[in-house]
Amino acid sequence: MLDIPANVQTSLPARSGLTDPFGRRVTYLRVSVTDRCDFRCVYCMAEDMQFLPKRDLLTLEELDRLSSAFVERGVRRLRLTGGEPLVRRNLMQLVRRLSRHLESGALQELTLTTNGSQLAQHAAELADCGVRRINVSLDTMNPERFRQITRRDQFARVMDGIRAAQASGIRIKLNAVALKGVNEFELSEMTRWAHGENMDLTLIETMPLGEIDEDRTDRYLPLSTVRHRLAQEFTLTDLPERTGGPARYVQVEETGGKLGFITPMTHNFCEGCNRVRLTCTGTLYMCLGQEDAADLRSVMRGSESDETLHRAIDEAISRKPKGHDFVIDRTTKRPAVSRHMSVTGG
């Protein structure tokens, strides 16, 4: 069982919320529980990745303490990410511990983003912990193309995971990165399949984070182009809703399902940003597309009291920038941000 130290409170006192310099309330925390992943998606990682030593990672108790500090400050949505979160040993102990904030009403949603490879064995327990929806990253419905993208032959296993989650009552949203010359002409088929299986689908532009084995300029596909193509086949009706993320949604009238577009390159979505990201080493990034960060691990380990930790969180939020500076540099081919997505938490 997850051993919570006596100094860590399980009921949360009232504290002021977190507001950045531009008046945006921070109500969404993404927590990377590991930088490790059992896939090696070509747009995300190099084949020969150097992962962090396990001794550098926050313990499950520390992840709980930090996450709970943010819940105490008004975070209402908490998403566990990686790497692949479900490869973290004993992760379900952390999920169950964090679920107390759902029971108390302090947290509106506890969820995660996964590649689906470990989902079948954990789906029932996730549902029992109050997880009601998850995001599954899936870029293709073609098993061979899946192997080429992920460098792993695990398509059937991911499908089993999706079915297990749905059988447990968990709603699935699929995330697909649009890749020029790879899956670009499969996206309408994926839309029909996802909606037919009662799943929403969100398309994402590839982001320039971390050195990988190929040239991102060869794979970058503007979603404006994708939407134009899809509009030749479907009737797309803009929806005003937001789910706490950066996606803009449309209703696909022919299928009755929702289709999202996340466009960090062609349309900066920062004006309504309500999130921050915590890494598995306790580093807080106030923006996915900026290098500025705050070391919360040393602050937390330096004091048994959470007062110092809350002051450090306040100071970090005061530096949250207005927006990111993503750009794919076609001259140098270098990423806009040196760290890999798996470090920050997808």
Q: Estimate the global geometry from the Cα principal axes.
A: globular
Strand order of the largest sheet: 7-8-9-6-5-4-3-2-1-10-11-12
Question: Low-confidence spans: pLDDT under 50, at least 5 residues?
Answer: none
List SSEs in N-to-C order: EHEHHEHEHHEHEHEEEEEEHHH
Q: Residue share in helices?
A: 25-40%
Strand content: 15-25%
Report the total helices.
11
Secondary-structure-based class equals alpha/beta
Mean pLDDT: 88
Give me the Rg, rounded. 19 Å
Largest sheet: 12 strands, mixed
E-strand count: 12
Measured between the Cα atoms of the first and last residue, the distance is 27 Å
Describe the protein's architecture and organization.
Helices cover 28% and strands 17% of the residues. It is α/β, with parallel strands linked by helices and 346 residues long. It has helices at 60-72, 91-98, 100-104, 119-128, 143-150, 155-167, 187-196, 223-231, 296-301, 307-317, 341-344; strands at residues 28-32, 77-81, 109-114, 133-137, 171-178, 200-205, 236-239, 248-252, 257-262, 275-278, 283-285, 293-295. The protein has a twelve-stranded mixed sheet with strand order 7-8-9-6-5-4-3-2-1-10-11-12. The protein contains eleven helices and twelve strands. The two termini are 27 Å apart.
Would you spell out the secondary-structure blueprint of this structure?
Layout: E1 28-32, H1 60-72, E2 77-81, H2 91-98, H3 100-104, E3 109-114, H4 119-128, E4 133-137, H5 143-150, H6 155-167, E5 171-178, H7 187-196, E6 200-205, H8 223-231, E7 236-239, E8 248-252, E9 257-262, E10 275-278, E11 283-285, E12 293-295, H9 296-301, H10 307-317, H11 341-344
Parallel strand pairs: 1-2, 1-10, 2-3, 3-4, 4-5, 5-6, 6-9
Antiparallel strand pairs: 7-8, 8-9, 10-11, 11-12
Helix pairs in contact: 1-2, 4-6
